[in-house]
Design brief:
- The protein is mainly beta.
- Strands 4-10-9-6-7 form a 5-stranded mixed sheet, with no helix packed on it.
- Helices cover 2% and strands 45% of the residues.
Length: 426
C-alpha cells in the first residue's frame, strides 16, 4: 500500500465508552471523501501500557446475512499481526468498527428549557425538537467541567424532564445526530438550597389585633431576593407582619429567580381585653356633689375634658353644668377609657317648657318634638359636639338613624326661652 497523510484525526476518551454496547463517534470536523479510504484507530493508555485485545464481528454472520469473502481482520500482538482465531478460535465479537458516511444536511442542535436555576428537588424540562436535520437525540447530565468527568443521567428522546436533588452546578448536554453527523450544546444549571430563616411571633396584648410575625436571617435560594407572605398569594419584600389577630399562620419565604419556597407554621396567641367599669350616669343639682367611681384596673386617671382631675378609683365632682367625665383605667399593661355623664337638675328655662312633648324616648331611628309655635333645636352628643340642627313650627321630626347608640341631648330654644333634654338612641 502507499502511505498517505491522514485526512482527519480525533480523540475519544475510553472512559466515555460503554462496554458491551455500540458506541458512536463523530469527527468534530468530518472530511469529504471520494472513493476508497481507510479508518483506523490507536489506543493509548499512558505508562505503563496495558495489554488489550480488539476483536471484530464474526464476518461469517453479520447483520443476519451470511457473508462471503475472507475475514481480513487482524490483531497485533507479540510483535506481529494475527487473525483473531490465532488467539482463540471461539472468539466471535467484542468490538467492531463501522465507517459511516453521509451526504445529507448537517444537524444543528437546539433546545428549549423551562429554567436554568432551580431549588434542590426541582425539575428542568428540556425539548430538543427545535433542532434541525436531527434524527436522534442524546441527552446527558454531567458535572460542570469541560470535558465532563461525571455523568449523572442520560436520555435518548427529544423531550425530557431532569430532576436535581443536590445543591451545586450541573450541565445538560444535547447531541443532535443526523446524516452520520453530530452537533452539540449544553445548558449550565444552578441548583440552590431551599430558603431558611428564623421566624418568630409576638402574641396579641389586651385583646387587640396587634400580633406580630417577624422573619430574620434568611438564607438559601436565589439570594438576596426574598419575599414573604402569609397566604402564599400576596407577597411583600418587608419581613415583618403587624396588626395580626390571634391564630395559626403559614409563613411563606420565596426567592422568585429559582422558584424556591419554604413554609413555616407560627401561632399568635390571643389575650384578654381589659374590662373597665364606671359608675352609671348620674344627676346632680347645682351646688351638689357626686362621687364617680371607676374599676377594673390598678391605675386611674380622671379627666374633665383635657384637664386631669384625679388619680384614684373614686373622685368627687361638683359641676356647674351638665358634663361628661372620662377615666383612663390601666392594669400596668392594658388600658381602657370609660365615660360618665353628669346631668344637671332641670333649670327655670326647662321648667317653662311645660307644654313640650318629645317622643319616643328611647328612640331607634327618629324622634318627634311637639311644641306650640316656632322653635329651633340642636342635637348634641355628651361631649357637647353638634350632631345636627334644625327648626320646627309646632312639630319637628329629628332623625338619629346614623347616630351611634348612647345618650344625646336636644337643645330647644324660642325667642323667649330655651331648655335641654336627654335623648337615648337604642
Amino acid at each position: 500500500s502507499t502511505n498517505a497523510a491522514a485526512m482527519v484525526t480525533d480523540t475519544m476518551y475510553i472512559a466515555d465508552m460503554q462496554a458491551g454496547f455500540y458506541n458512536e463517534f463523530d469527527f468534530t470536523s468530518p472530511p469529504t471523501v471520494v472513493g476508497n479510504f481507510w479508518v483506523s484507530f490507536e489506543l493509548f493508555y499512558g505508562a505503563p501500557q496495558d495489554t488489550i485485545g480488539l476483536y471484530c464481528v464474526d464476518f461469517d454472520y453479520r447483520n443476519g446475512v451470511t457473508a462471503t469473502g475472507a475475514n481480513t481482520t487482524k490483531i497485533y500482538y507479540s510483535s506481529a499481526w494475527h487473525l483473531p482465531s490465532d488467539l482463540n478460535a471461539t472468539f466471535k465479537t467484542s468490538l467492531w468498527v463501522d465507517a459511516l458516511t453521509s451526504n445529507g444536511p448537517a444537524p444543528v442542535a437546539d433546545f428549549s428549557y423551562s429554567e436554568d436555576e432551580i431549588c434542590a428537588g426541582g425539575q428542568v424540562l428540556v425539548n430538543g425538537s427545535s433542532s434541525t436535520n436531527a434524527t436522534n437525540y442524546y441527552w446527558y447530565v454531567t458535572n460542570d467541567v469541560s470535558p465532563p468527568t461525571i455523568f449523572y443521567s442520560e436520555s435518548f428522546v427529544a423531550g425530557n424532564t431532569f430532576t436535581f436533588n443536590t445543591v451545586g452546578t450541573r450541565r445538560i448536554y444535547l447531541f443532535a445526530d443526523g446524516s452520520c453527523m453530530t452537533d452539540g450544546l449544553y445548558l449550565p444549571i444552578i441548583i440552590d438550597a431551599k430558603p431558611s430563616a428564623t421566624v418568630t411571633s409576638t402574641n396579641t396584648t389586651c385583646g387587640n389585633n396587634n400580633g406580630i410575625i417577624t422573619i430574620s436571617g434568611a438564607t438559601g435560594g436565589n439570594t438576596p431576593n426574598y419575599s414573604y407572605s402569609l397566604d402564599g398569594i400576596n407577597f411583600q419584600t418587608g419581613n415583618i407582619f403587624n396588626n395580626l389577630a390571634s391564630g395559626t399562620y403559614t409563613v411563606y419565604i420565596k426567592t422568585p429567580g429559582d422558584n424556591c419556597e419554604k413554609t413555616y407554621t407560627k401561632v399568635v396567641s390571643n389575650s384578654t381585653e381589659l374590662i373597665a367599669t364606671i359608675s352609671s350616669s348620674t344627676t346632680i343639682c347645682p351646688g351638689e356633689t357626686a362621687i364617680l367611681t371607676a374599676g377594673g384596673g390598678t391605675i386611674y386617671t380622671w379627666y374633665d375634658g383635657s384637664t386631669v382631675i384625679g388619680s384614684t378609683a373614686s373622685i368627687s365632682v361638683s359641676p356647674a353644668a351638665q358634663n361628661q367625665y372620662s377615666c383612663i383605667v390601666s392594669d400596668g399593661t392594658c388600658q381602657a377609657t370609660v365615660y360618665v355623664n353628669v346631668d344637671m337638675c332641670a333649670g327655670i328655662d326647662e321648667q317653662i317648657f311645660t307644654n313640650i312633648n318629645i317622643y319616643p324616648n328611647p328612640a331607634t331611628s327618629s324622634f318627634t318634638i311637639e311644641l306650640p309655635g316656632e322653635f329651633n333645636y340642636e342635637l348634641l352628643d355628651t361631649r357637647g359636639r353638634l350632631i345636627q340642627r334644625g327648626n320646627g313650627n309646632n312639630i319637628a321630626n329629628v332623625s338619629v338613624e346614623s347616630c351611634d347608640h348612647g345618650v344625646y341631648f336636644i337643645k330647644i330654644s324660642t325667642d323667649k326661652k330655651q331648655g335641654s333634654f336627654k335623648i337615648i338612641k337604642q
